[in-house]
Amino acid sequence: MKNALVTGGTRGIGLGIVKMLLNKGYFVTLTYAKDEQSVITCQESLMDFKGQFEILKANQGCKIEMQMLVSHLKNRGNIDCIVCNAGKTIRKSLQEIQDNEWEDIMNVNLNSNVFLIRDLYDIISPHSRIIFIGSLMGIYPHGTSLVYGVSKASIHALALNLVKCFEGTGTTVNAIAPGFVETEWQKNKPMEIRQNISNKTAIKRFASVEEIAKAVELCIDNAFVNGSIIEVSGGYCFK
Question: What's this model's pTM, rounded to 2 decimal places?
Fold first, then answer.
């Protein structure tokens, strides 16, 4: 049985990816940061899935918890798929954001993923798949979420550069850049804002979690997709 890791896998896009991997026969380790209720909800939603999984607490802003995650995975053996999905945002402009806030978002969204791949490198099997969940905001600027956009643009660059680190191993590295997705957070936005966002896409709606998971599945199934930033935006553009 192949082993997979999905960070931030107890809800939203991460949970959709976990379900896809379970259906493909992976043993999935999924992590969460703080929300214990999300673990209960996640366990309930996975009851009908036949695949095996485990849920571990690993806050990507905490080096000790991430080191414990790495040690646990190394004790399990090789890993065949890593999906770096966990992320964090803050809606502040350049003038408002504090040093510690910037550093926190960059640590969670970027630095922790660099160190995770570095520390797991020796147990990543040949012909594995590494997939980062970036963001459309890493491609298009966003006035009230500067650090999030910069961190996701950095994740896109990380995926491209890691291709050289895994050259010759058969392992591929890609990033998915979703637009706006029907997650819990987006569903709570006022209808007026949701409609304004939908009107900026040619499809006139938000993506489903399953549609993002299918983009991840493409990267898993197609060994020639490598070093790609796959935009899944419904044809988003500014109007």
Answer: 0.93
